[in-house]
Specification:
The chain has 262 residues and is of the alpha+beta class. Helices cover 40% and strands 11% of the residues. A hairpin with a 2-residue loop joins strand 1 and strand 2.
Length: 262
């Protein structure tokens, strides 16, 4: 049927839409021969190629049309707010993993409690608690940086996509990868939102000192924690494809305390 010289367009079926997405994303992700040779590469873990990995996640992606509200196959996929139990379970998983590290037991008790307190604050999106926990290292920015990297690696090891960086003057940045904003916490405990750019080579740029009207630090902290918990539970689609230069959340398994001095 034609109207004014144009052929009537038909929308693809869900199956056709899924196949198109899988094909496109698999081409972007398809690993090199060197990557496939790595013992812990995604292709091995999923029992196949990058296409298999993509297909696994597309099965729960919200594929649909604007008219039907992008209803997905998994009703939980679009739920951005983790339940209290999901958040608690994620913290417990992270805590147990950290405690299994041989060097963790050699740390002073204050450091062990401080690490767990900061880690929980990040997963809860509680920047006030994080700022309070940071006070014990207020005059030790290098030690605070070690804490931040230890927490980041530990959370990445369980599949999270949250990152923490500390500047030379003791400011901590908390953000998701990929992400466009970070919560900056100063040594004085005050929090502000900073626009950032996370790059595919693993670098991160703070774009400027300009004021951000939305979201507020508390709202952004909650969004970051939600994505961090959802990524662990496989519900954050942006964490499926890990940028080069970053620890691959699910398949790269380093020691999380390699940078933390006893």
């Amino acid at each position: 049927m034609e109207k004014e010289g144009l052929k009537e367009q038909t929308l693809p079926t869900d199956a056709e839409a899924k196949d198109a997405i899988v094909k496109f994303m698999a081409e972007l992700y398809e690993p090199t021969a060197a990557q496939k040779a790595q013992p812990n590469h995604a292709a091995k873990d999923f029992g196949g190629t990058g296409r298999d990995k993509v297909g696994t996640y597309v099965d729960v992606m919200p594929i649909g049309r604007p008219s039907d509200g992008l209803i997905g196959r998994d009703p939980n996929f679009l739920r951005t707010e983790p339940t209290a139990k999901e958040r608690s379970d994620t913290h417990e998983k992270a805590r147990q993993l950290l405690e299994k590290e041989p060097m963790f037991k050699l740390l002073p008790e204050a450091d062990r409690k401080g690490l767990d307190r900061m880690q929980k604050a990040v997963l809860d999106g509680n920047m006030k608690e994080l700022a309070e926990a940071m006070k014990q290292l207020k005059d030790k920015p290098e030690r605070l940086k070690e804490f931040a990297k230890t927490i980041e690696k530990n959370l990445q090891k369980i599949g999270s996509n949250v990152s923490l960086d500390v500047t030379s003057d003791g400011k901590m940045f908390v953000y998701n990868v990929p992400g466009t904003h970070a919560v900056e916490i100063g040594p004085d405990g005050k929090s502000v939102v900073r626009p950032i750019q996370t790059n595919w080579d693993g670098s991160v740029d703070v774009l400027s000192e300009r004021q951000v009207l939305r979201p507020s630090p508390d709202d952004l902290a909650k969004q970051i924690s939600n994505r961090a918990v959802n990524a662990v539970r496989g519900r954050d689609i942006s964490s499926v494809f890990d940028p080069p230069g970053r620890a691959n959340n699910r398949f790269w398994q380093p020691s999380v305390i390699e940078d933390l001095k006893v």
